[in-house]
């Protein structure tokens, strides 16, 4: 089973669950591609598919400051798709054509409890002309332009599905 396409946007220290996360994504590759390419599918469909496997690694799902005090400021409306409090790994899942990667970055760097950020995004998508475009590579290019933003993190891993 081949690892999914992945890259670090920033790495001071490797994500401690990198191999396990890649194995989970690889194990569900066929279903993830169906969700990714589906016309009426959402990131919540990806979350639902991967939830039990991520929870098996120790992640909590749909976490706010109510569940984990100090994850974000008290008045923040941020929610983390998945969070591993022991290893301080935050994981956000995106699916849509125009997802807001910068909101995810803000969540990662805003929280004092996040050491390792993971963004699970489509590897590619169909453009309006019917051509396949690499979402992962263009996102990695955009994110690599702001390295100072990640100084509070130990790593920022992108995984494509």
Write a structural description.
There is one protein chain. With 161 residues, this protein is of the alpha/beta class. Helices cover 32% and strands 24% of the residues. It contains five helices and eight strands. It has helices spanning 18-27, 29-37, 43-56, 101-110, 135-143, and strands at residues 6-11, 60-63, 80-84, 89-93, 116-121, 124-126, 132-134, 155-160. The strands form two sheets. Strands 1-8-5-4-3-2 form a six-stranded mixed beta sheet, with helices on both faces. A two-stranded antiparallel sheet has the order 6-7. Helix 4 links the parallel strand 4 (89-93) and strand 5. It is globular, with a radius of gyration of 15 Å. The chain starts with 5 loop residues before the first strand and ends with a strand.
Short characterization:
The chain is an alpha/beta fold and 161 residues long.
Question: Main traits of this protein?
Answer:
161 residues, alpha/beta, six-stranded mixed beta sheet, two-stranded antiparallel sheet, 5 helices, 8 strands
Structural class: alpha/beta
Query: What general outline do the C-alpha atoms trace?
Result: globular
Number of separate helices: 5
The total strand number stands at 8
Mean pLDDT: 93
CA gyration radius, whole angstroms: 15 Å
Helical content band = 25-40%
Q: Which stretches are poorly predicted, pLDDT < 50 over at least 5 residues?
A: none
H/E series: EHHHEEEHEEEHE
Classify the beta-strand content into a percent band.
Answer: 15-25%
């Amino acid at each position: 089973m081949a690892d999914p396409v992945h890259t670090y946007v920033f790495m001071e220290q490797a994500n401690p669950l990198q191999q396990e996360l890649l194995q989970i994504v690889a194990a569900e590759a066929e279903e993830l591609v169906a969700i990714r390419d589906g016309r009426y599918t959402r990131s919540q469909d990806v979350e639902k598919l991967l939830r039990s496997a991520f929870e098996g690694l120790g992640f909590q799902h749909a976490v706010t400051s109510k569940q984990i005090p100090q994850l974000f400021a008290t008045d923040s409306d941020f929610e983390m798709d998945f969070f591993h409090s022991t290893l301080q790994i935050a994981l956000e899942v995106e699916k849509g054509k125009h997802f807001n990667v910068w909101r995810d970055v803000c969540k990662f760097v805003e929280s004092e409890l996040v050491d390792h950020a993971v963004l699970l995004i489509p590897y590619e998508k169909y453009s309006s002309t019917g051509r396949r475009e690499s979402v992962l590579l263009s996102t990695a290019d955009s994110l690599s332009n702001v390295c100072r933003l990640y100084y509070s993190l130990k790593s920022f891993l992108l995984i494509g599905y």
